[in-house]
Write a structure and sequence with these properties.
Distance between the termini: 100 Å
Oligomer: single chain
Strand order of the largest sheet: 1-2
Structural class: mainly alpha
CATH superfamily of one domain: Transmembrane di-heme cytochromes, Chain C
CATH topology of one domain: Fumarate Reductase Cytochrome B subunit
CATH class of one domain: Mainly Alpha
């Protein structure tokens, strides 16, 4: 009887050892199974853990190994969105409030009455004065960021000879900015400089000039501002109704391959060459002149 109990105890012990031996690897293997949902790290969490994400590449260009860089995304958002709307919104406020200062008494006063016109004109005056500062900042940033792509060259002459892309039977070559966009760029800078200087002379009267100088500044400011508004209205028309796809390009800062090939073929060739050489990871987006 004792021998039978000993054998039973031995069998139970052996089975327990076998269960542990077989069960442990199974559980360990189960724990090692990767769950795609549980193991994938959220992109924002990953970006917060490291200033940038790098990969391993075979080509000698080390900069091409940078896959993600939050600072680059921040700059791209500022470049494509913030800067555009900084200048656009401030220009709209300055344009409307300035037109009210010049023509409001003749056009708006009879429509809304003296009380409403007085309240609106006072608010418009303060808006005109204070929005001048972000507008000047936007003009300066536009100059710094885009001047290198807006230097006139012989390609611009050919662009005009081919009708600027508005004649379907002809092809107008262009780099990142065509000749028309360059004209808008330099027109914006020139008009922006004149209205800014004359405007600050009016904003801070008699600090720099006398009454005669103030009168000249008033005339220059009014005339150039009206011409400036006309220039931007023309730019808005071409960027919306005048050219298919231009509005999406201005709104998003990006264009597709076919649009770039049709309107900015030389720029597209340069960017594709950079991409093939490894100096530019992928086809970039286009940013029209603002």
């Amino acid at each position: 009887m004792m021998a039978l109990l000993a054998r039973a105890r031995f069998v139970v012990g052996a089975l327990a050892v076998c269960f542990i031996a077989l069960g442990t690897p199974a559980s360990a293997q189960q724990n090692d199974v990767v769950s795609p949902d549980a193991s994938v790290v959220n992109e924002q969490t990953l970006l917060r853990q490291s200033p940038r994400i790098e990969g391993r590449i075979d080509i000698p260009n080390e900069t091409a190994s940078v896959l993600e860089q939050p600072a680059g995304r921040t700059w791209d958002h500022f470049h494509q969105v913030t800067l555009h709307w900084l200048t656009a919104v401030s220009f709209i406020v300055l344009g409307l409030s300035g037109l009210n200062i010049t023509f409001g008494k003749a056009l708006l006063l009879p429509l809304i009455g003296p009380d409403a016109f007085s309240a609106f004109s006072q608010a418009a005056k303060y808006a005109h004065n204070f929005m001048s500062f972000p507008f000047v900042l936007g003009i300066v940033l536009i100059l710094v960021i885009w001047i290198k792509d807006n230097i006139p060259d012989k390609v611009d002459i050919e662009w005009f000879r081919q009708g600027g892309g508005f004649i379907k039977s002809k092809h107008a070559p262009a780099r990142r900015f065509n000749a028309g966009e360059k004209l808008v760029f330099w027109g914006v800078l020139g008009a922006g400089a004149l209205v800014s200087v004359s405007g600050f002379l009016l904003l801070f009267p008699f600090y720099v000039t006398d009454i005669a100088g103030m009168q000249i500044a008033q005339v220059v400011h009014s005339v150039i501002a009206v011409l400036f508004v006309a220039l931007i209205l023309g730019h808005i028309y071409i960027g919306t109704l005048g050219m298919e796809g231009a509005f999406e390009a201005m709104g998003t800062g990006e264009v597709d391959y076919n649009w770039a090939k049709e309107h900015h073929d030389l720029w597209l060739e340069d960017e594709l060459a950079k991409s093939r050489s490894g100096n530019h990871p992928g086809l970039p987006s286009a940013t029209p002149a603002e």
